[in-house]
Write a structure and sequence with these properties.
The protein has one domain. It contains three helices and two strands, in the order H-H-H-E-E. The chain is mostly helical and 117 residues long.
Length: 117
């Protein structure tokens, strides 16, 4: 897997920087976008910038390549997954909390119209 998904000598560095640190930041970015009722396409713009910061952390702390399109795309895809999960989770919570007479929750990421509403 080294060379395809991550550049560092061990997968633990990829998991620490991209998945844990970057994933948390992406989740919080998705949460912030959802809480301000902004559309999902704005989240994509923010995550693209966050991907640059994650790439810089890999470069600055672990001597990885800074300007590489391949690993930037991998990092950004992981961040997009976390960001959209955070956005959808918080949007579902908003819809079912603020409009509880119209919608009911169907899971952590979804909602549906209430019966008879």
């Amino acid at each position: 897997m080294q060379g395809i998904i991550y550049e560092e000598p061990t997968i633990w560095l990829f998991l620490l920087v991209t998945v844990i640190m970057g994933g948390w930041a992406a989740w919080m970015t998705g949460r912030a976008v959802a809480m301000t009722w902004r559309p999902a396409f704005q989240l994509v713009l923010y995550i693209l910038v966050l991907g640059l910061f994650v790439r810089f952390i890999h470069f600055a702390l672990f001597q990885a390549t800074l300007l590489t399109l391949h690993y930037y795309i991998i990092d950004t895809i992981v961040l997009l997954a976390f960001g959209f999960a955070g956005w959808r989770y918080n949007r579902a919570r908003q819809m079912t909390t603020q409009y509880r007479w119209l919608y009911e929750r169907t899971g952590p990421f979804g909602w549906k119209p209430r019966e008879g509403g």
